[in-house]
Amino acid sequence: MLMTSCILSFVSDESERETTPDRTDSAGDRAPRRRRNPQASRAAILEAARAVFAERGYARATIREIASRAGVTHGLVMRHFGSKEQLLISALPGTQHIPELAAGDPATLPQRIAASFVEQIESSGDHALIALIRSAAAGDEAPMRLYHALERSAAESYRQIFSGPDADVYVDLLASLLIGVTFSRYVAPTGRLAEISAEELIAYLTAAIAALLAPVLPKH
Amino acid sequence: MLMTSCILSFVSDESERETTPDRTDSAGDRAPRRRRNPQASRAAILEAARAVFAERGYARATIREIASRAGVTHGLVMRHFGSKEQLLISALPGTQHIPELAAGDPATLPQRIAASFVEQIESSGDHALIALIRSAAAGDEAPMRLYHALERSAAESYRQIFSGPDADVYVDLLASLLIGVTFSRYVAPTGRLAEISAEELIAYLTAAIAALLAPVLPKH
DNA sequence: GGTTGTAGTGACCAAGTGGTCAATTAGACG
DNA sequence: CGTCTAATTGACCACTTGGTCACTACAACC
Question: Lower CB density within 10 Å: C or N end of chain A?
Fold first, then answer.
């Protein structure tokens, strides 16, 4: 169920600094060669990969476009990551511990879930969930495995917050709602959900989550 | 919002009969040529297209595989439909009038929405919504346009069932839930939602929809 | 300053794609 | 039965893709 970006926080892999200048690539006496800086290259490639995977999904994302955005050649991408699949695995985040949403007042739990979700995904840099949904939807092996791994680990943690025999199902229903909202607002922007402000979205989502989870919410 | 398969009923295009025998294609003295039957060919191609688009999504679906499943050559597919995009448009359903869900007892409206949704998508032949979600998620132009067109027309109709100033948003939230459930159960089968029976799913969905829509449900 | 490991390049490849088209031939019509 | 139309084929094309590799030249180290 993934619990969407509530649980997606980057392990933040590489140093992510952007020392290197963009390459012209079209200019041309032979070699306007990029300054050597393997770490910066890796970071630039990963950042570009996240963006491109989010925009195009796994199948339509091309190594050449990722390389071009990172200001390197596609040969270098292959050198650093070996394959497109490995690049995806490196670019997308691993599961992190579930934020201690359960800690606060149970009455405000829905509000905190909604806010955490919207804020994380709204923060510009975080295209991970969108990329994952896009890519998993395409049906390729690699993203599908990634998706399932994240889902399993996230579900595991979330299941402990709620009680009752049906807890699993309600966790999945909540996840479905969040995935659907992500789809309607970011993947295929559509309807009112794509138009309203983040604050409004949080408000509506809070109400929806509260209603949805009522049967399994911890009693206050 | 699409309201998922509640509103997706095929205009049922072609005659869909399956007179023609499968081709061996590998056997070989020149021409084990298919019996001429353009309507049957079109129908077979469309059926194959629906299945392949649902399994692979637009980007990864290939005309050759569709042709092969339909028992024809990919040249014939091109002849009949002109382009891959046109094939998609022809294969996927147009919006139909919203079934008269609003007619019955308002108290059972959530139950009818849930049942209508699950039954339609569970009926084996109907891969339309899955294909559409897969393809739109991939971000290709053609399926995205199709998706938006369907969404707009469906939202229009559904909006009239509910009342209140926030009706649009709640319609979209419901759609998001259904899209998310479709995703979790069919596109990237995951968690309990992918395991439980159709009857159980309907039961849980009914509860979820009732809770979700409570603020805008017609008073009984 | 020379040596050297390797980051970075760009030409190359095989496979697969959507799309085109001339040639075949099944079937309808006289 | 002969004629003609068009459904169907399969060879073909240009292009893109992921992946390989021999080569270049930057920068660190002695």
Answer: C
